[in-house]
Amino acid sequence: MKFMKLGSKPDTFQADGKCIRYVISDLATDVTIIVGEVKFHLHKFPLMSKSNRLQKLVLKASEENSDEIDMVDFPGGPKAFEICAKFCYGMTVTLNAYNVVAARCAAEYLEMTEDVDRGNLIFKIEVFINSSILRSWKDSIIVLQTTKSLLPWSENLKIVGRCIDSIASKTSVDPANVTWSYTYNRKLSAPEIIVKGGMKYQEKIESVPKDWWVEDMCELEIFLYKRVMTAVKSKGRMDGAIIGEALKTYAVRWLPDSVDALISDVHSWRNKLLVETIVCLLPSDKGVSCSCSFLLKLLKVAILVGVDDSAREDLMNRISLKLDEASVKDLLIPARSPQTTIYDVGMVHSIVNQCMINEKCSQDLDLGKNDVGCTDFVLGHGSLLSVGKVIDGYLEEIARDPNLSLASFIDLARSIPEFARPVHDGLYKAIDMYLKEHLSLTKAERKELCSLMDVKKLTMDASMHAAQNDRLPLRVVVQVLFFEQVRASAGVQSLNNNPRDASRSTTNTEEEWEKTAAEDCNSIKKQMNQTKIKEGEFPKNGKFLKKDSRNSKSGMQLLPSRSRRIFDKLWVVGKGHGENKSSETSGSSQSPTSMVPGDTKSAASSAKHRRHSIS
């Protein structure tokens, strides 16, 4: 810390209790100056030789036959006046970052200018501030902190502005040129390892990180912090990511951890102001500078402390730009009264909708520039795939809420476009969880819920689970079993047609596989339409003739035995009832004749079997 000593005479000021100060001298004191609750018994001549204001006040007191002068609203109080008084006596006094602002304001109040005496206190303090204080990083911050209690004097004397400019300028200095001390308690990034000549050398860690100034700035009060950060941003030389890190560090430093402390009457106003200030200071670079996790946590706090709508909407817009980086845990925003759900699903839905609008605008720009199709857009913007994945995880989590309406669940699920959800395993888990926690759903509601899912986009594991899930409508199970049979048949046919490429066929892309499966499905449908079942081939016991039964069983052997039996029985029931089959088993009309085993039991016996869930 920088300091400056003034005067050379020994300090002869003495105290008599807490309210009396006097000077030890052979001459009796002839004036009493009152500053606050303290009385200073001093001599007129030393004071008048340095202070123009004291000259006027002493003259006025003499005219009134009084030896007391009351200094009203003296900046800095008794301590600041004592510094000025000692300077007038030529006594030794030490100025530093903690008292220099008070001394400067007091000297201004007393009019200790060069007109009264050359080398007066104002001149000396200004030299000290400009040559030492403002050149020191930590001293500039300390001095800025002390200016708050001395407003408006410190503002009018431009001490606040000079300190802010000094601090903002130093943050923009190349880290390689930083030679002053600073506080840095966070972990440095791991050094890179350089391999040279067969030996490993640890690269020297950069001595000064780019965000070296962040922690020291956290000591500033919120009003001063806002002014400094505004100055830092206005210079235009600071990376937005570092500004984002600074705001995050400040929020962690000052926002309490507990919800009770956040919303307490004592600190609620300060916390609200803090959040609104941080939101105001966020870089205007479309949210790139701040992590989505930090923005979501800030949004949760903003809701708790009751920030205004503009700040909340600003946060939501920034989050929508980085939604692909979000985690399910961060999206679990607690609902507020009068909402009855556990989490604020509506707010997340709004964020997702805004995210889709942003992507649509980006798509339109890309189409205008490159004249490419939607497929190229999706392949070039994988962020939507991440959004789809995290929203499916979020749906699974909120599905546990018994108060979550079916409409809210379906609306949020449908907000994700189809091309952003190439695999429906996550959506299936969410639907299954909702069915598990909401047992009172009607048949129509279960059907509507399951219509969100495309069974063709389920992986093998998810299909096997769904085929034995007794919570799913029967029609969905039939569709799952049918498509698994199509998939199995396509795989067997591919192996039979080209056994040399068997190993290579297992590495086909999802798009190629779906194309093959679709073609095979169409082929099977054509075969089914051409097949005519004669009356003689369908005996009373409900069994098909065992003609060609060996070929018809070959594909079904690839399905689990229980699922195969269920599918066999559903298929027979569908054929037995003809046009009168129910909507629950209407999916079986798509089943190929090659999938009908000859030894399938009758429809009556099929009713004895029940599906079960392995979840």
TrEMBL record:
Annotated keywords: Phosphoprotein, Ubl conjugation pathway
SMART domains, per database record: BTB
Residues annotated as domain BTB: 29-97
GO biological process: positive gravitropism; protein ubiquitination
GO cellular component annotations of the record: cytosol; membrane
Compositionally biased intervals (Basic and acidic residues): 532-551
Ranges annotated as biased composition (Low complexity): 583-594
Biased composition (Polar residues): 494-508
Entry-linked PANTHER family: OS12G0117600 PROTEIN
Name of the protein: BTB/POZ domain-containing protein NPY1
Biological source species: Gossypium klotzschianum
